[in-house]
Automatic annotation (TrEMBL):
Residues 14-56, 71-86 have a biased composition (Acidic residues). Residues 1-96 are annotated as: Disordered. It comes from Petrolisthes manimaculis. Residues 1-10 have a biased composition (Polar residues). This is Uncharacterized protein. Residues 57-70 have a biased composition (Basic and acidic residues).
Length: 96
């Protein structure tokens, strides 16, 4: 083997090793990017769920508020109705 061939072989081996390292580094970076993307998606999903829960809670509160208002309105109508009945009762003359 001539020294030139030996140098050539060494150079080729080094290039091959560098290429492998480069590929491993790229794979590692891709894996990290993939993990980051998954974490981001999980975070977005979590935020979405929290937003939905918040909206649901606000919806319940709004329903309760509307229910109370409706109940109060009905009570007022009943009171007005009762007062109206009281007022109307004397104006009607009983028919015998």
């Amino acid at each position: 083997m001539s020294p030139r061939s030996n140098q050539e072989t060494t150079r080729l081996v080094e290039e091959e090793e560098e290429e492998e390292e480069k590929e491993e580094e790229e794979e590692k970076e891709e894996e990290e990017e993939k993990e980051d993307e998954e974490e981001k998606e999980e975070e977005e999903e979590k935020e979405k769920e929290e937003e939905e829960e918040k909206e649901e809670e606000e919806g319940k509160e709004k329903e309760e508020e509307e229910g109370k208002e409706k109940e109060e309105e009905e009570e007022k109508e009943e009171e007005v109705g009762e007062e109206g009945d009281k007022e109307e009762a004397p104006t009607h003359s009983p028919v015998h």
